[in-house]
């Protein structure tokens, strides 16, 4: 029964990851097409947040997703939920600016620096120290992104800074989303709905100040122009794809370890880069491709180093129990087998 359940979980994760890759690639292609004709990243973000707000409630109720408890204190809400909504908004806006200013493949190469931000933020926020292997794995990431930057034919400084800012915001969001899910017991999809709705309410005034006036008097959005229907169609499709992508990403994050999520995210990045290069056809050099490959390889090395670090910590927490049990007359072979079982479970995840 355990083997069947584990096999089911593995198949579920693989299916979700494959679906995540396809939807994310489609979303990036549509987003690039949209921003090339409609250079309003703040409006694109607001449309995506509106999609999350409008579609999530009825869909989750129909799907039977449990409602979250209302016993979350206001202090906790202000301390974690509101900053999470802020991070989600900023991450999306900066991500759209980067895709608007630079090719999607380069933007995702820069986002491969997420482990660098994760290590730095974990050190600052959680006071967490890493092994030398983890720090060493950051070298090819930084080197690969540097090579890709120096050889990027369509380089733009605003695009680079926006991609880095988006990556840092997503790193913070991943760290605190896991914490909120653990502390409150809220369903991961309900958390997505809460963050999307809160971000929409918080930043609607900012959108009205910066984009609304321009949109009212923008010729391309008037009904008489042919491009208006094309742009509106892309906006609707982009909102749907982003909503679906968020559902899949939060689902994967909720059922796997942060390390497994990081591996899946790195693999998704490879898939997105390959698809966008093929579909959008932006010019690249072989040295540029080498830099992208080097950065992604560094991410995989980082994930492996973090996995080994976690296994070492697991040993340190289990071995003292083994010694205590041995002193109490418990069979040492039983404890060793139990430890091996835990390792097997980690490997299966």
Automatic annotation (TrEMBL):
SUPFAM superfamilies: Multidrug resistance efflux transporter EmrE
Membrane-spanning segments: 41-64, 76-94, 106-126, 133-151, 189-210, 230-252, 286-305
This protein's UniProt keywords: Membrane, Signal, Transmembrane, Transmembrane helix
Membrane topology: Multi-pass membrane protein
Any one GO cellular component localisation term in the record: membrane
Signal peptide: 1-25
Domain of life: Eukaryota
Ranges of residues in domain Sugar phosphate transporter: 13-303
Keyword NAD annotated: no
Principal location: membrane
Compartments it resides in: Membrane
PANTHER family hit by this protein: SOLUTE CARRIER FAMILY 35
Protein name from the UniProt record: Solute carrier family 35 member E1-like protein
Organism of origin: Camponotus floridanus (Florida carpenter ant)
